[in-house]
Structure formats: structure tokens, C-alpha cells
Amino acid sequence: MRFLLFISLMMSSFSSFSYSNEELIELIKEGGYVLMIRHTSRGSLEGDTLVRADRFSHCITGSSLSVRGVEEAKRMGERFRSNNIPISEFLSSPSCRCRQLMYYAFPGKFYEIKAEILYKYAKSAEENDRMKPILNYHFSHPIALAGTNRVISGHNNTIESLEITGMPPKPLGMGDVAVIRPMGNSNFEFVGTISRFF
What we know:
It is a single chain. By secondary structure, the protein is α/β, with parallel strands linked by helices. The chain has one domain: Phosphoglycerate mutase-like (Rossmann fold, 3-Layer(aba) Sandwich), CATH 3.40.50.1240. It has helices at 2-12, 21-28, 47-55, 67-82, 96-105, 125-140, 156-160, and strands spanning 34-38, 87-92, 112-113, 149-154, 177-184, 187-194. Strands 3-2-4-1-5-6 form a six-stranded mixed beta sheet, sandwiched between helices. The longest helix has 16 residues, at 67-82.
């Protein structure tokens, strides 16, 4: 079964990363991947008010998950559990909605808040330059516990700020999970996106 899945994934690699959700879920059950989750639904707040709220980790309407987003996060966590996807490391942007996703999707799990995961527009140019190697490390260094995955709760621009081999131009939607293979020595590659994993 695993051999057939490997052949299927290899063949699909010639069609612009057209892996299905089901294929990617089977792949990450084996562990060894970084799973970059874009937070689930939030309100329509934009501009400087949103940036200030996110920079200082404030929870206000629009920077936090909406009622629908909370329910989506809970369903996402249930999908991780029902599919027996192993996770040993949990990292989050300091923004309210990313922390909320961790709280509702993975209740009781300890997660580390990392300022470098916050999207680049909420940080200064100097901060982005200083933090980029640290952000790269989160995506590139292998997971310490073999057979498990690392979850990163972040933003669409978290992943856009890095040059990832094979990253498609389509932005991550809310609730999407980018599957990334860490390769060590600051190297990693994009494998595919699980769309709306809730």
C-alpha cells in the first residue's frame, strides 16, 4: 500500500503538485513533515488596525477567529485525531487567531509562540531581516522525534516570505495546510497543500 502511494506521489509530481488531499494525509501519517496551517476564518478587519492588533497580540473583532472560524478549528483538530496524524512539535504566531487555532484544534497541547512566524507586514524591515533565518530554521530542521510532524500555526504571508522550492503562486486559503519536507542545512521543499482541512 505504501509502495503504491509512493509511486502515485512520484507520478503526480510531474503534474505541478497535483496531490489529492487524501494522498497528502496518507503521507503525513508517516511523520517527518512541517505542517504549516493558515488560521481558519476571521472577520473582515484590515489595514493598520489589524496590523497593530496582531503585532501586540491583541484579540479584537477581526484579528480573532470568527464564530465560524472557531468551529472550523475544532473540526480541524478532530480530523487530525481521526486520521491518526502524529504531531510532537507545536509552534504559533503570536497573533490572536493563530493562538486560538492552537487552543481549539489541539486542546491541552503546549505550543511555543514565535514572533518570527507573524506575517512580515506586522514587523519592521530590520525585524524581518533578523528573524528570517530563524523562521527558515523552523521549516528546514528535521523533526526531533522520528515518525512525527511539526505544526506551525501561521499566516499566508508567513510562507510567502520564504523561497520554497515548488511553492505554487496560489495563496493559502484559511484552513489550508501546506505540507513541507524539511531537509536540514536551511533547505526544505514544498510537497502540496491540503485544502480546507476541517
